[in-house]
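Internal ticket #5521
Category: modeling
Description: The requester needs a full-assembly model to guide mutagenesis choices. All entity lines are attached below as received. Residue total reported by intake: 221.
Assigned to: D.W.
Attached entities:
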Amino acid sequence: GQQVMQIPQYQHVQEGEDFTTYCNSSTTLSNIQWYKQRPGGHPVFLIQLVKSGEVKKQKRLTFQFGEAKKNSSLHITATQTTDVGTYFCAGFGGATNKLIFGTGTLLAVQP
Amino acid sequence: EPEVTQTPSHQVTQMGQEVILRCVPISNHLYFYWYRQILGQKVEFLVSFYNNEISEKSEIFDDQFSVERPDGSNFTLKIRSTKLEDSAMYFCASSVARQYFGPGTRLTVT
């Protein structure tokens, strides 16, 4: 079945450093979504990318969807302690209504 | 911002017992979902529901699971005979354009 992997599994940074998580799908995705889950919380939608090669920015966060629509990345510039949490990519593959989540990257930010 | 609500927040049950997890989706949403997340792992799709029927389900969603929309507001997930490996966080979500997740129900099977 469709698999969505993320690397790294865990990243520990000093506050102010940049952070990137990479998402790779085994199949082509119709779109990619990104979610943030705070410790003990629920997934919160961040953004959706639909077009091949699309880049979107939200303040310090930059999201990219690969040309082949099989990979994506999230980059955070100058991390803050409020960025702590697990970042999941998720996508719909083909003609399906199943949202398949990636394995997630846990970000820890040291003040 | 509108919210999906879920009850209870934590449910402890004995193996073999039936549990019903409840969700109130956002009122004008048409698609409803259940996901589960085993502690420390990724979020896994269980089932999607539209127009009063299941539109898709995963291989996890076997005969022990069922969903229902008993009235105009609630959306429930029933597990008929719980197993230890059903212990997880269960999230309900609803959507129009994008999915809104509820706070989850932590199910502990002992």
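Resolution: model delivered.
Comment from assignee: Residues 1 and 16 of chain B are 38 Å apart (CA to CA).
Ticket closed.
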